[in-house]
Amino acid sequence: MKSLKVMGLMIGLLFIAGAVLPLAARAADVKIGYVDLGKLFDEYEKTKAYDKILEADNTKFQDERTKKIDKIKDLQSKAAMVKDAEKAKVEKDMETLKNEILEFDRTKRTDLTKARDEKVREILLEIEKTVSEYAKKEGYTYVLNDRVLIYGVDSSNITAPIQKILSDNYAKDNKK
Questions:
Q1: ∠ CA 159-130-137 to the nearest 5 degrees?
Q2: pLDDT over threshold 80, residue 87
Q3: Domains of the chain and CATH, by start
Q4: Does 69 have pLDDT greater than 90?
Q5: pLDDT tens profile 8-53
Q6: CA distances (Å), origin 45, targets 54, 56, 119, 134, 170
Q7: Which residues make beta-bridge pairs with 144?
Q8: DSSP class of residue 29?
Q9: Residues 138 and 35: beta-carbon distance below 8 Å
Q10: DSSP three-state, residue 28
């Protein structure tokens, strides 16, 4: 009986060793890197270029909005000076303009947010594709986002080469 237990224990140990040793051997082949996704996104020229476009669109929106608000202010000044018979019409016009401004604000803000979200998604997908291509080319098993790391050695940080590739590709695309 004892010999069966010992034999079972030996077989179990051999099974565990057979399962663990190949994993340990494979672990030596694992190459892990990480990227600072925030830095890649913020310092990417395409992001900066799009921020300028978005800012110009926002300025245009604010200018249009200001003109509409100025019209209401003019009507408010006019309402104070007109006779009671015309006052109702001016107040109705002001109310109509206020509603138009609210709808204009809602529509434009939604459009600007949608355009920004689409561009952010496009840029993030481009970064992801570049990281994947680099990882395959350089033999990385895993590439992590630095936000999920508690600690990572600097030699595993591949942000700089990815950033260079992104910049070079952006410059090349803009020469066309």
A1: 90
A2: no
A3: 25-175 (3.30.910.20)
A4: no
A5: 444 544 455 455 445 444 556 899 999 999 999 999 999 999 999 9
A6: 14, 17, 13, 19, 7
A7: 34
A8: T
A9: no
A10: coil
pLDDT value at position 68?
84
Helix ranges (DSSP H) in the chain:
2-27, 37-43, 45-81, 84-138, 159-175
Buried b or exposed e, range 90-112, using 16+ CB within 10 angstroms = beeebeebeeebeeeeeebeeee
Q: Check if the beta carbon of residue 170 is closer than 8 Å to that of residue 131.
A: no
> Which pLDDT value is given to residue 129?
96
Cα separation, 26 vs 73, whole angstroms: 74
pLDDT for residue 75 is more than 70? yes
Asked if 108 and 61 touch (Cβ cutoff 8 Å), the reply is yes
Query: How is residue 119 written in tokens?
Result: 């561009």
Tokens coding 51: 């921020």
